[in-house]
Amino acid sequence: MKISAILASLPRPNPGMHSVNEAFPAWFRSMSIPAETRCYELGKRYVVPGSASSTELCGNLNEAMEADAVLFWGDWMQMRHYGTTLAEADARWRWIDASRTAPGSLTEAEALVRRHLLLAERPLSDLRKTILVGGTLALNSASDFIDGKYAAPLQRLFENASAVLMRDLPSAHIARSLRGDCSDPCLGCDCALLLSPDHLPGFGELPIASENRITLFFGRNLGDRSTRQYAQFSRRVANALEADVSWLPWFPGRERYARSFGRVLRLKEAIRRKLGTQGQRARQDNTALPTLGQLLHAIAQNRCVITDTYHLAVNAWGLGVPAICIADPMEPVSWSANSGQRHTWRDKRFEFFSMIEALPYFVRARELEKAAWKRSRVEQLVELLSSGDEIEALVSARLQTLRETTRSRLRQALTSLSAGR
């Protein structure tokens, strides 16, 4: 059996997206499926040092579709905003196919994206051997679904796909509507939850001295006011737990946040130094960045994580480390990677925490605006982290169910496609 896996392209260092992509070989090894695999990316640009190789999908779509099963693996590949952004980048800078002598029009680029990520114009036989796993449509707006150029190939793909396993409940509901089959749950999990980090370079190499440690990373919040609020709140939680605090360099280029939090918290820099990220040097030299394995190992040594970043929270919970997520879906931008289009907010972090029954750990930014609210929230979280084993066990059980259901349905879909060869 031959399997083609189409992965989301990384435009720059992004440990969250990298964890999703690395989950494919990890899942494949765990399934012990006798098959030959090949990975593809549309708009392949940033290559993670030491990661498995993948092939540019543009120019190789026919080759990819010759496989017995085609997996669209994770992330936003069928979401309209992702396709539009990719098309705009290609129309300006030949982002998808750099071999062309000049960029094409935006209309041409949008059609190219639809052909590759929605399989527009492909025969139905190709769509029927396609599996959509770990993707999301949750941040689409109603206006996206009434755009015929996007909505028609999207519905055609979902109606005919062999299996659909979305990463969140709103997306699963949308997928059921597109497939016209309410008996199919269409729910899987975020692919990062299928990652087994033991094989990753750097995992298990760096001992962290303190067991009573909280690690922080904030890179999604905007403005000095929210930075101060988040830092002060994190300090209160850490002080109440008498815990050491360190900053995790999850994304490069967020040094200004680390400095802001450092002034409030007087952060210990041990994790930052050990992981090898040194600001400007790290941005210029990819090999100076911490590996995904090092980052996940650092997370695994902590009592908890406090963050505003979706995939950091997903990976922490996946490792069994409670993640406190502070989120403000109403960001002052026209389109947010967290909550979608302005005035149609649907926060992906909230949806994840809700799905795994981890809402006691989800903090809305408004809760930090009043002293009484903030004090109550700190007390509640400290109590959870001190004696909340039952809630952690419930979250762990929910995650395990999502993992096992996704693995089982994936195996079932692949077995069916293999039998029909």
Features:
421 residues; alpha/beta; Rossmann fold; six-stranded parallel beta sheet; 17 helices; globular
Structural description of this entry:
The chain has helices spanning 15-31, 61-65, 80-93, 106-117, 124-127, 142-145, 148-160, 169-179, 224-241, 255-265, 270-275, 280-284, 292-300, 310-318, 348-355, 371-387, 389-419, and strands at residues 2-7, 36-41, 55-56, 69-75, 130-135, 163-165, 213-217, 244-247, 304-307, 323-327, 335-336, 340-341, 362-364. By secondary structure, the protein is of the alpha/beta class. A 6-stranded parallel sheet has the order 3-2-1-4-5-6, with helices on both faces. A 5-stranded parallel sheet has the order 8-7-9-10-13, with helices on both faces. A two-stranded antiparallel ribbon has the order 11-12. The relative contact order is 0.12.
Shape annotation: globular
Largest sheet: 6 strands, parallel
**Discrete helix count:** 17
Can you identify the CATH class of the largest domain?
Alpha Beta
Q: How far do the termini sit from each other? A: 9 Å
Instruction: Determine the fraction of residues in helical runs and give it as a percent range.
Output: 40-55%
Strand content range:
5-15%
Sequence of secondary-structure elements: EHEEHEHHHEHHEHEHEHHHHEHEEEHEHH
| Count of individual beta strands | 13
Task: List unreliable stretches of 5+ residues.
Answer: 278-284
Helix-strand category: alpha/beta
Radius of gyration, rounded?
21 Å
Largest sheet: spatial strand order: 3-2-1-4-5-6
Total number of domains? 2
Q: Kindly state the mean pLDDT as a whole number?
A: 89
